[in-house]
Amino acid sequence: MMVPAALLLLGALTAVVAPRMLARADWPDREPVVALWVWQCVVAGVLLCCALSMTLSAAAAWQVVRGHVFAPAPSAVVEAYAHGVGHPWAATTAVTLACGGLWTVAMLVREVVRARARRRQRRAELLVRAPLLPGEEPGNDRLAILEGERPQAWWLPGTAPRLVITTAALRRLKGRQLDAVLAHEQGHARARHDWLLHCSAALAGGFPQVPVFAAFRDEMHRLVELSADDMASRRFGRLTTALALVELNEDRGVFGPCPTAQAQVPERVNRLLTPPDRLTAGRRLRLTAAAALVPVIPVLVAFGPGLRALG
Question: How far is it, in rounded angstroms, from Cα 114 to Cα 46?
């Protein structure tokens, strides 16, 4: 049980240490795309530690599983994992982790089903407010304009993503500001940010007592907006994008002394108006490579005894 225990310890350390290190760092706000990648690698590393620990624990507990897992391996590799010694906690650990895996899949399926139901409802409401013209087929128009007194623009994901904007937003946004808002929403669609939000919500909802998953969900909501802001600012300028955010949100109380739930809007505007302090290409590459190593470490821990036995 040494290797499964080491994997669980590694997963726990990663789940505790990595979020704290990312929370203290200041580069994620400057490089949200890299930060998104780092967060995904951290969560993948934690889940991989649990999956490998479950597999090796099951192999230690049951001969049938051991035969499948180590079927092509020499006898020296099997002996290196000390499967000949009785492990009273192996079966309990394997069953517990297997239940956690099934629960994770169930939470992800539930989140996807709920998201599709919400999307169908919003599309039905959109069809009522913006009915199809004679001869027009659903899904052909990627832009929908709605009558509305509040300036709003949002992206409706799906097999045929649509950009929805209200007439109030069209009246308020000036020239390139409208282009910047549309580019922001198109950035969400191109990067498929909806899947990141679904996965993070499923993990946080399924395991509310695990802080890394709650932090993952919160950071995904924040970083996808920063990433889309950068996509828009690269095409239409940081000042134009910041002014578009102000025009869309100034009537919602987000800039007052008692901000509403969209309190991240002022921070986004300030970030766009602050001269960018970009990471160098070399440091960005090192961060990306270091993040990619996070899921590799549990694989090395799991296969370490076998590699030593073969050597």
Answer: 26
